[in-house]
Write a structure and sequence with these properties.
The chain has 100 residues and is of the alpha+beta class. Helices cover 18% and strands 42% of the residues. A hairpin with a 2-residue loop joins strand 3 (52-62) and strand 4. 21% of the residues are buried.
């Protein structure tokens, strides 16, 4: 499988690496949204290769309530924390992850 720079990958099931990424931005995300999440579980994701990598991730935050987040991970700083770029509230289990 080849990856096209700038294009989104196919949908993938979230793994431990993706869960670790969202764990690093949980406090910031909860602060911006204005609430503590009862559940915080990465479900699925897509990636986009740019001058680093964008991760578009579906996160389950309550029973039947999801949020989409976009994180940026720079390539030049291997140990750099992911940056929370944007988020979308009120998503469902079936909402497609699209670039935002």
């Amino acid at each position: 499988m080849s990856i096209i720079t700038g294009g989104l990958s196919e949908l993938k099931v979230a793994d431990e690496e993706v869960q670790n990424l969202i764990n690093q931005v949980r406090d910031e995300l909860e602060s911006k949204v204005g609430k503590r999440f009862t559940i915080y579980e990465a479900v699925s994701f897509k990636t986009q290769v740019v001058s680093g990598a964008n991760y578009l991730i579906k996160i389950k935050i309550e029973v039947d309530i999801y949020i989409h987040v976009r994180l940026f991970c720079p390539l030049s700083q291997a140990d750099a924390a992911p940056k929370l770029v944007k988020y979308q509230l009120n998503k469902s289990k079936d909402d497609e992850i699209v670039f935002f």
